[in-house]
Amino acid sequence: MLFKIAAGIVAATLLLVYVAPVVLRLQDLALWAVVLLGLGMMLVDLWQSLTAKD
Fold it and tell me: Which end of the chain has less neighbouring CB within 10 Å, N or C?
């Protein structure tokens, strides 16, 4: 379980590092919304995988 949490944190960090330069350069509100929605879906998927019975 600790591995799943660490992998989720690394994945979320990599996503933010990958899209941050584009989002910050364009300064578009719709792009911010898409990135935050994608990050939210990733975190929900992580939460569901942590609470699911294996």
Answer: C
